[in-house]
Amino acid sequence: MAAEKFSIDQRETDKAIVLHFHGELDLEVAATLFRDKLETVVYRTEKELVLDLTDLSYIDSTGIGILVSVLKIRNERKAALTVQNIPASVCKLLEITGISQFLLAGVKGDAH
Questions:
Q1: Nearest 10 degrees: CA dihedral of 66, 106, 57, 24?
Q2: pTM for this predicted structure
Q3: Parallel, antiparallel, or unpaired: how do β-strands 48-59 and 7-12 relate?
Q4: Where is the STAS domain (predicted)?
């Protein structure tokens, strides 16, 4: 079975920038992902950043590293970050690695 290609859909509301992740977030897409998509929004502190992981089918250690980097950048700038709709398989991996406590601390309901 072929890997599901990774993509991000972006939408913006008055209060939030919502990034909807699709597919597999792994080493193969990590470098271009941050440079091409996340870097442009992670530093925008005037709005909450919402990462919607509903359709994230797989994440490896590189992908987890990206989530941690986003969390760190947002925390340093005291900017809001919400990670929502985490699939069970991804949530389990985040729990095993101990990262879920940091990502889930700010989890809220649906984006604005």
A1: -10
A2: 0.86
A3: unpaired
A4: 6-112
Domain ranges of the chain: 7-106
What's the token pair of residue 53? Answer: 């992981």
Question: Cα 85 to the chain's mean position, in Å?
Answer: 10
pLDDT (tens digit per residue) in 12-67: 999 999 999 999 999 988 888 877 888 889 999 999 999 999 999 999 999 999 99
Three-state secondary structure readout of 40-98: HHHCCCCCEEEEEEEEEEEECHHHHHHHHHHHHHHHHCCCCEEEECCCHHHHHHHHHHC
Q: Which CATH class is domain 7-106?
A: alpha beta
